[in-house]
Design brief:
Blueprint: E1 9-20, E2 23-35, E3 40-44, H1 51-59, E4 66-71, E5 74-75, E6 83-87, H2 98-103, H3 115-128, H4 144-156, E7 162-166, H5 174-190, E8 194-198, H6 202-208, E9 211-215, E10 222-227, H7 242-260
Parallel strand pairs: 3-8, 3-9, 6-7, 7-8
Antiparallel strand pairs: 1-2, 1-4, 4-5, 9-10
């Protein structure tokens, strides 16, 4: 990729390491990638290669040792209110209703919405993910998949430009996970955002993303990328076409190379 500020997200020659007790652990090395506005990029790679570190750099939760991260042509040097995040653990507050959990970011991030406008938006998002009947429930009254749906609504409530998904479906059973993949396509159509997905599930990556980026082993750089074509409304049957199976095999081979530390 030619690094370019024309991308909504531009990561340019980023190097980063963790330091503790006099020891240095290199995590990312001269990594560059970009995501166009309203694009969706999935990042895969060996465990511990720095995928989650990458999301924290994009969100401005940390700064790289070298290189730079840009959003909308502005360098990221601190946390950005235009970024929404959803994680494997939804971390919903038990003492708040689902509706109040979804509204929580608007108590932190400045908004022009009135109280009624904010509640209307929260209810609209809950409707999109099939939780209209559960807005007054507590998190413990919902299944894991339902809690993750609420977490996605919370991440989108402030209408972020960028949505970062750090293995949000990893702890769910296969059927619930696939149902949420379809929900993600619905959300993306109704609430356009630029997405970055961290996942270990290669099927998930090719079903949700426009591009899959494979990171090398640590210290990670971009090893391989696959652009995906999408035609018509997404259906799970698309995962079983000859083209999808070939793409999955290509990605599995790249993960094998990354794990073995071999040259591409």
């Amino acid at each position: 990729m030619a690094s370019s500020r024309e991308n909504l997200i531009a990561i340019e020659n980023v190097t980063h390491a963790y330091r503790k007790d006099g020891h240095t652990l290199p995590v990312l090395e001269d990594l560059s990638l970009g995501v166009v506005e309203h694009g969706f990029t999935a990042v895969v790679g060996p465990s511990g290669c720095g995928k989650s570190t990458l999301t924290r750099l994009i969100a401005g939760l940390m700064r790289p040792d070298a290189g730079s991260v840009w959003l909308h042509g502005e360098q990221v040097v601190s946390p950005r209110s235009t970024v929404g995040m959803a994680f494997q653990n939804p971390v919903l507050l038990e003492w708040r209703s689902i509706l109040k959990n979804v509204l929580l970011p608007l108590e932190i991030v400045p908004t022009s919405l009135s109280k009624q406008g904010a509640e209307d938006r929260a209810r609209h998002l809950l409707h999109l993910v099939g939780l209209s009947a559960f807005e007054d429930k507590r998190p413990s009254e919902l299944s894991g998949g339902m809690r993750q749906r609420a977490s996605l609504c919370r991440a989108l409530i402030h209408n972020p430009d960028v949505l970062i998904l750090d293995e949000p479906f990893g702890a769910l059973d296969a059927f619930t996970r696939e149902d949420l993949w379809l929900t993600m396509h619905k959300l993306r159509a109704e609430e356009p955002f630029t997405g970055v997905l961290i996942t270990h599930d290669l099927r998930e990556s090719i079903f949700l993303a426009d591009e899959v980026v494979v990171l090398s082993d640590r210290p990670a750089t971009v090893q391989h990328r696959v652009a995906l074509k999408r035609e018509g409304s997404p259906t799970l049957d698309q995962l079983y076409t000859g083209e999808s199976i070939a793409t999955l095999n290509e990605l599995r081979e790249q993960i094998r190379i990354a794990r073995n530390g071999a040259e591409v």
